[in-house]
Amino acid sequence: MADNAGTGGVAGFDPARIEEIINRGIPHCGELGIHVERIGDGTCCLRLDYQERLVGDPASGVLHGGVITTLTDSVSGMSVYMALKKFVPIATLDLRIDYLRPSTPHEPLFAEAHCFKTTRQIAFVRGLAYNNDRDDPVASCAGTFMINSSDTPPLSGRSKQGREAGQ
Amino acid sequence: MSERFSELERTVARARADGDWRPLFRAIPYLSFMGLEMIEDAADGRLVCVLPEDPKFIGNPLLPALHGGVVGALLEAAAVIELMAVQETARVPKIINLTVDYLRSAKPVRTFAQGSVTKPGRRVASVHVEAWQGDRAKPVATANAHFLLA
């Protein structure tokens, strides 16, 4: 992670756990090899390296839209954790994705999200997906999340569950 | 643009003619990765897209639940297939946007999705899609998507 500045100092909130959640807590993110690029105050950026198996158009080598959906949904959820500064169960209520241009073959895909508003029950997020040039985005997204969506403990690396007990 | 159909468009044309979409799924790496299959709705013969049960699709292992992105991908795939099945040309539609409503937690089990074209325009088409698991009357997610046809 390059830049963890501005993540606040809420007791018991360890922003480094975002990386554990992505790498090990969410099996589908682990399967795709998604990595945390950086985190900040209410923000997160994830990276997915180009893979042939994720191509949606074999003629051009462009990634399938479903890959962008998965990356933006994941990064949006992580930005909610970074805004709440605690790990509570959250669930996507809705997610809108605008596909602005095809993802460039062989370049990594980044997705960043900003959770710009939280209420007691709902978090509001917007974000972007891009290749190497952030000023030429592949997709934009807007989503809302339910906070405390279940009684089940939040996503966690199984070995770390004990740490949640005091929260 | 060339008048000749691309390899993918020929695959689409064949699938529409003989109703077998498996060659198209095999031709698209991401759909193979998802293990998507098509079945015909017993009631009306329309196409239903099927996502198999696989632990690699899990987003939350503690509930457990499918990853929302996987559900979104299934909905998008079902929307494209429905559009290609009903449209006149073999051209592969380009997705403009997708709005997914997550209605209930999707269990990590076999999941179905079916699209219906709400507006078959000349340049742009709108498709509504529903995804369900055990009970069709209780969809786990719905989506609306716009596609560019020309």
TrEMBL record, chain A:
<feature type="domain" description="Thioesterase">
    <location>
        <begin position="61"/>
        <end position="135"/>
    </location>
</feature>
<dbReference type="InterPro" id="IPR029069">
    <property type="entry name" value="HotDog_dom_sf"/>
</dbReference>
<dbReference type="Pfam" id="PF03061">
    <property type="entry name" value="4HBT"/>
</dbReference>
<dbReference type="GO" id="GO:0061522">
    <property type="term" value="F:1,4-dihydroxy-2-naphthoyl-CoA thioesterase activity"/>
</dbReference>
<protein>
    <recommendedName>
        <fullName>Thioesterase domain-containing protein</fullName>
    </recommendedName>
</protein>
<dbReference type="GO" id="GO:0005829">
    <property type="term" value="C:cytosol"/>
</dbReference>
<dbReference type="InterPro" id="IPR003736">
    <property type="entry name" value="PAAI_dom"/>
</dbReference>
<keyword id="KW-0378">Hydrolase</keyword>
<dbReference type="InterPro" id="IPR006683">
    <property type="entry name" value="Thioestr_dom"/>
</dbReference>
UniProtKB/TrEMBL annotation, chain B:
<dbReference type="InterPro" id="IPR006683">
    <property type="entry name" value="Thioestr_dom"/>
</dbReference>
<feature type="domain" description="Thioesterase">
    <location>
        <begin position="66"/>
        <end position="138"/>
    </location>
</feature>
<keyword id="KW-0378">Hydrolase</keyword>
<dbReference type="GO" id="GO:0016289">
    <property type="term" value="F:acyl-CoA hydrolase activity"/>
</dbReference>
<dbReference type="InterPro" id="IPR029069">
    <property type="entry name" value="HotDog_dom_sf"/>
</dbReference>
<dbReference type="InterPro" id="IPR003736">
    <property type="entry name" value="PAAI_dom"/>
</dbReference>
<protein>
    <recommendedName>
        <fullName>Thioesterase domain-containing protein</fullName>
    </recommendedName>
</protein>
<dbReference type="Pfam" id="PF03061">
    <property type="entry name" value="4HBT"/>
</dbReference>
